[in-house]
């Protein structure tokens, strides 16, 4: 029969084995080389060094706007179904304002019908869709010349309904915006729609035109002189600004505030990520153990990369200020050795009562 002291020994051995099997707080290339063979091909340890950052800058893709967007120049406005026109024939108020001059211009407007035609006195039905304002003015002048000597005709669009730009996503106002006789720029649309700066992914704007998706980084545009004002939009364009709730990096371990960080732009640095999390916990963190784990979502296709930063010296934060964190990255700060021991001690404390009770029982049995 096993004695009470034997039970105490077995309990301590089990506890120590559990602690020995707990994951370590610091990785090294030796750890990976001597690790589980099943996981060797899934992990790659990379040191964050000036050379690595220089290589990343050299291989970084320059974000440039597609030439198709910058080269597009708006054409004269063409009348479409649903537009309302105000036609003026000078010295002929009965033609200009049949509802009376005291009425609002809209009451005297001429609606382009669903079949693309417009009715006008002495002219009858006239196919106007696809015409420019100048072409319609000339057509009316020519037809009215049979009834009016040298007619002077003016045409204005007072209700734009046929041509629009559609918006979806992280805008405060997603109402369709009309294309008018005045060319419409991307900057004007964004200003009217008002970006939800708290929830938008500013680097992920997509402009869909003629079946093609053009990706636009608004943050980069603003820093390069607001080129959004140089991009003209045309009827049928669709703008989608994604939310940033699916673009997150995760800061865990020995930081003040472990958290998920949403990406508003594409240039979050390691310093910024750690700063938003309150920085390293001065009591429990091990500055030598700062890792960025990348690529864990697709381990079957490529190994996960683990970038290591030795942040024990202030110079390391100069490297962290240039290292880019990407969506899906996990930033992990390991614990200091004294922290591991204190945690082990705290796990051991609940067993102290058991040990004392067993010892007292053993003493009673022997006496």
TrEMBL record:
Residues of the SLBB domain: 163-239, 247-333
Bilayer disposition of the protein: Multi-pass membrane protein
Location(s), subcellular: Cell outer membrane
One Pfam match: Poly_export
Major place of residence: membrane
Keywords annotated in UniProt: Cell outer membrane, Ion transport, Lipoprotein, Membrane, Palmitate, Polysaccharide transport, Porin, Signal, Sugar transport, Transmembrane, Transmembrane beta strand, Transport
Domain Polysaccharide export protein N-terminal: 73-157
Signal sequence segment: 1-22
InterPro entries: Poly_export, Poly_export_N, SLBB_dom
Keyword Transcription set for record: no
PANTHER family per record: POLYSACCHARIDE EXPORT PROTEIN GFCE-RELATED
Sequence similarity: Belongs to the BexD/CtrA/VexA family.
Protein name: Polysaccharide biosynthesis/export family protein
Organism of origin: Rhodanobacter geophilus
């Amino acid at each position: 029969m096993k004695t009470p002291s034997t039970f105490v020994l077995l309990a301590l051995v089990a506890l120590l084995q559990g602690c020995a099997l707990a994951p370590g707080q610091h990785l090294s290339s030796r750890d990976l080389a001597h690790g589980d063979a099943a996981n060797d091909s899934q992990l790659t340890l990379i040191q964050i060094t000036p050379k690595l950052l220089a290589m990343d800058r050299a291989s970084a893709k320059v974000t440039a706007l597609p030439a198709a967007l910058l080269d597009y120049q708006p054409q004269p406005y063409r009348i479409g179904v649903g537009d309302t026109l105000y036609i003026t024939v000078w010295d002929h108020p009965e033609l200009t304002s049949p509802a009376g001059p005291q009425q609002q211009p809209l009451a005297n407007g001429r609606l382009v019908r669903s079949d693309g035609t417009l009715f006008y006195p002495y002219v009858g039905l006239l196919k106007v869709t696809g015409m420019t304002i100048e072409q319609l003015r000339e057509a009316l002048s020519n037809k009215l010349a049979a009834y009016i000597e040298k007619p002077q005709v003016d045409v204005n669009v007072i209700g734009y309904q046929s041509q629009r730009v559609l918006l979806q996503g992280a805008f405060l106002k997603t109402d369709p915006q009309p294309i008018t006789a005045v060319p419409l720029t991307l900057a004007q649309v964004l200003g009217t729609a008002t970006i939800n700066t708290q929830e938008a992914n500013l680097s992920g704007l997509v402009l869909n035109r003629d079946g093609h998706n053009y990706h636009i980084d608004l943050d980069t545009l603003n820093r390069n002189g607001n080129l959004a004002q140089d991009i003209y939009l045309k009827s049928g364009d669709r703008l989608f600004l994604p939310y940033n709730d699916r673009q997150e990096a995760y800061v865990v371990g020995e930081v003040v505030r472990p958290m998920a960080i949403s990406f508003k732009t594409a240039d979050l640095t390691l310093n910024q990520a750690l700063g938003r999390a309150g920085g390293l916990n001065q009591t429990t963190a091990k500055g030598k153990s700062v890792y960025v784990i990348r690529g864990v979502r697709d381990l079957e296709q490529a190994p996960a990369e683990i970038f290591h930063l030795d942040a024990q010296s202030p110079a390391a934060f100069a490297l962290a200020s240039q290292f880019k964190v990407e969506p899906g990255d996990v930033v992990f700060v390991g614990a200091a050795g004294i922290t591991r021991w204190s945690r082990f001690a705290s796990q051991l404390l609940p067993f102290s009562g058991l040990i004392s009770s067993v010892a007292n029982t053993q003493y009673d049995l022997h006496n």
